[in-house]
């Protein structure tokens, strides 16, 4: 006897619940209307460019022993850009979601952002405290950069999900 498909869909056959959209229509309207969205859109690739240059300089120093001062300056610049994007991102979250940080839509990205900031600031504090070998400082910077890459990937993934949910709803 052949299997006969019936249209009787019980609980076992229920379609999975779709992932809720990242933004409500009101939040999307606020996101699209605020200048802070543009600010984030400019700062994110700027920060990534600073990161790539700094990473190159840090690796160059670790590989050759040359360029410690410029590598150090690049790490400080990367940290400054990170702090600016975090502050402006908190303002963006306030405008879009009504709270400065840890809005449900970006909760885990914000949590991990604090780890990224902590590692960057650890580098700065270790630099200012003195007594650390340059190689140790550069390894702290590399740890901060690895965390930054993970955090950037979180945000890219989240924004991709948002784009896909908008396309699916059309």
Q: What do you see in this structure?
A:
With 170 residues, this protein is mainly alpha-helical. It is elongated and about 55 Å long. Helix content is 75%, strand content 0%. It has one domain (25-168). The chain is built from five helices and no strands.
Calculate Rg over CA atoms: 22 Å
Structural class: mainly alpha
Shape: elongated
Give the fraction of residues assigned to helices.
over 70%
Main pleated-sheet profile: none
Query: What is the mean pLDDT?
Result: 89
Strand content: under 5%
User: How many distinct helices?
Assistant: 5
Oligomer: single chain
- Give the terminus-to-terminus CA distance: 42 Å
What are the segments in which pLDDT stays under 50 over at least 5 consecutive residues? 1-7
Annotation, overall tally of beta strands: 0
Question: TL;DR?
Answer:
With 170 residues, this protein is mostly helical. The chain contains 5 helices and no strands.
Q: What is the fold's blueprint, element by element?
A:
Layout: H1 25-33, H2 35-64, H3 68-97, H4 107-129, H5 134-168
Descriptive key words:
mainly alpha, 5 helices, 170 residues, single chain
């Amino acid at each position: 006897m052949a299997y006969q498909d019936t249209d009787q869909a019980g609980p076992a056959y229920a379609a999975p619940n779709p992932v809720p959209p990242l933004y409500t229509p009101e939040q999307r309207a606020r996101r699209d209307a605020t200048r802070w969205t543009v600010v984030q859109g400019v700062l994110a690739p700027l920060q990534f460019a600073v990161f790539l240059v700094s990473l190159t300089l840090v690796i160059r120093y670790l590989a050759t022993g040359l360029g410690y001062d410029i590598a150090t300056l690049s790490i400080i610049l990367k940290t400054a850009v990170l702090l600016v994007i975090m502050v402006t991102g908190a303002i963006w979250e306030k405008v879009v979601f009504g709270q400065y940080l840890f809005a449900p839509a970006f909760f885990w990205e914000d949590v991990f952002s604090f780890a990224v900031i902590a590692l960057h600031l650890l580098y700065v504090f270790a630099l200012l405290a003195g007594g650390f070998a340059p190689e140790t400082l550069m390894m702290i910077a590399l740890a901060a950069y690895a965390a930054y890459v993970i955090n950037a990937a979180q945000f890219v993934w989240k924004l991709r999900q948002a784009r896909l949910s908008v396309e699916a709803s059309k």
